[in-house]
Design brief:
Elements lengths: L6 H5 L7 E5 L3 H8 L4 E4 L3 H4 L11 H14 L4 E5 L8 H14 L4 E5 L5 H9 L4 E6 L5 H4 L9 H16 L4 E5 L3 H10 L4 E4 L7 E4 L1 H4 L17 H17 L11
The protein binds 3-methyl-2-oxobutanoic acid (KIV).
3-methyl-2-oxobutanoic acid binds next to β6.
């Protein structure tokens, strides 16, 4: 996947080959992940897996710009989605000013905004002003404190109807795709069927238009907790611990460095 996918290319994947999205927070991993992904998300989840905080709330715009720049440098041919952090899109004016900062100071291709019907006016204001927007509906990590935890959505008829309203509102506001997180699979399927833009799932089952995972979860590097929807493709934490332990033993026994590592 060396040629960068475009927004129209992303839209064409509706109901077609599933989109592959993965998070990255730095140039090193962005380079490694670029070949196998359609889109790289610089998620504010970096505040948890990278900065060690208990949720995403304290990520700042400056941090997101710094990490987005790093990812853009590492994966210059990838389509980059930059998460707008908590508190940076509370009204139309601040949302536009902050998104312009993100666009002017990085090579991000779009911003991602959490929220549904309630955020439609803000999404419209951004898209009307040349900022491409990826929506994010369902379980909203930035609402974890106000909701008292991470709650799977779509468990009631009312919630399911609201999710469809959210997806339609975000689509009408001009979002070219959206993430749907933590939603019962049968409801996510209905949501995906209710709009013409791709709906990319995380913890939302297989009947959507693509999947996104946090790279440190799928590489088994993040050990704090593992949500049910995460598949660990390698046990990265054990691999890293074993490698560092071998290094430590070899340093202590003076086995490292050898002749070939010496000037
Ligand atoms: O911040 C993030 O990594 C995200 C994903 C969970 C979709 O928003």
């Amino acid at each position: 996947m060396s040629k960068k996918i475009t927004i129209s290319g992303i839209k064409k994947r509706k109901g077609a080959a599933p989109l592959v999205m993965i998070t990255a927070y730095d140039a090193l991993f962005a380079t490694l992940l670029a070949d196998s992904s359609d889109m790289i998300l610089v998620g504010d989840s970096l505040n948890m897996s990278f900065a060690g905080k208990s949720d995403t709330i304290s990520a700042t715009l400056e941090q997101m710009i710094y990490h987005t720049n790093a990812v853009c440098s590492g994966a210059p041919n990838s389509f980059i989605v930059a998460d707008m952090p908590f508190g940076t899109y509370i009204d139309k004016k601040s949302a536009l000013n902050n998104s312009i900062k993100m666009f002017q100071q990085t090579q991000a291709d779009c911003v991602k905004i959490e929220g549904g019907e309630d955020k439609a006016k803000i999404v419209k204001h951004l898209t009307d002003n040349g900022i491409a927007v990826c929506g994010h509906i369902g379980l909203l990590p930035q609402s974890v404190r106000s909701e008292g935890g991470y709650k799977v959505k779509g468990k009631t008829e009312e919630e399911s109807k609201q999710l469809i309203k959210d997806a339609k509102a975000i689509e009408s506001a001009g979002a070219f795709c959206m993430v749907i997180e933590g939603v019962k699979a049968e409801v996510a399927k209905k949501v995906a069927e209710s709009v013409l833009v791709p709906v990319i799932g995380i913890g939302a089952g297989k009947d959507v238009d693509g999947q996104v995972l946090v790279f440190s979860d799928m590489l088994g590097l993040f050990e704090e907790f593992t949500p049910k929807f995460v598949k660990k493709y390698i046990d990265g934490a054990t691999l890293v611990r074993n490698a560092v332990s071998s290094y430590a033993q070899e340093v202590q026994s003076r086995e490292f460095p050898k002749e070939e590592h010496t000037y």
